[in-house]
Amino acid sequence: MRRLILELNKEDEMYENRRIQLQNVKTLEQLQVLRQDREEIAIICRVELEESVSNIEDYIKLINDNAFEVKLLEREKTGAYIVFVKVRLPRSPRASSIGAEEAYFVSREIREGKVKVTFLGTVSQIKKAIDELQRLGRRYKIISLTDAKFSLDSPLNALTDKQRKVLLTAYKMGYYNLPRKISSEQLAKKLNIHKTALVTHRRKAELRILTQMLKE
Q: Into how many domains does the chain fold?
């Protein structure tokens, strides 16, 4: 199993049918994967909009054609929405602009005008996804193409990209060893982020994994 992470422009023509709606999305972050199988995925997301909307449930469905159930869970003081979303997983390249047949759509995040999409699949499935992008003339950037070290049911799937990167780097660099092989300050420099941000991402990642494991 391989993991493909692509970065696309929010203004890319592949989102032509939803361009107006996506322009209003400031950030979209996947907070928690509740369930995923071959048919659908249930997630909790945090969405920030440039301008508020009257009905966030209908708005999410406009952004994602495959979202069939959306519920508003909370409206933060900042104006951000915390929503529960169920999404049907597309099964063929023509059902999704960047999905290969039988490949798993894992997550989508929007930040700073960029859309980051993650897929899991075999080598041939990932190749089909890239071939389809090229055939359609889509603009994209491959952020990473690696072996998937964990299953679809892994608690790591509940983490954001930043949280996962911080946690895995901390583990690989010996932060959790006794005694520690690297300090928080050194780890922050390694990742080129502020120590406060590092600690925040690490603690949130640890809490999400512990919460999911203890629930199970």
A: 2
Indicate if 65 and 17 belong to the same structural domain.
yes
If you count DSSP H runs as helices and E runs as strands, how many of each does the chain have, helices first? 6, 8
For the chain, strand residue ranges (E) read 2-9, 25-36, 40-49, 67-75, 81-88, 104-111, 114-121, 141-147
Domain that holds residue 177: 159-216
Tokens representing residue 195 in the block? 């120590």
| Average pLDDT of the segment spanning 19-28 | 76
Cα-flanking dihedrals φ and ψ of residue 193, to 5°?
A: -135, 165
Task: Give the span between the Cα atoms of 99 and 131, in whole angstroms.
Answer: 10
Q: How many CB atoms lie within 10 A of CB 124?
A: 13
Q: Look at residue 182 and tell me whether its pLDDT is greater than 60.
A: yes
Q: What is the CATH number of the domain that holds 190?
A: 1.10.10
User: What number is the average pLDDT over the span 60-81?
Assistant: 88
40, 174, 176, 182, 202 from 179: Cα distances, Å: 43, 9, 8, 9, 18
Q: pTM above the 0.90 mark?
A: no
Q: Please indicate, yes or no, whether residues 132 and 27 belong to a single structural domain of this protein.
A: yes
Q: For the segment 89-124, what is each residue's pLDDT rounded down to a tens digit?
A: 655 443 344 444 445 656 677 777 778 888 777 788
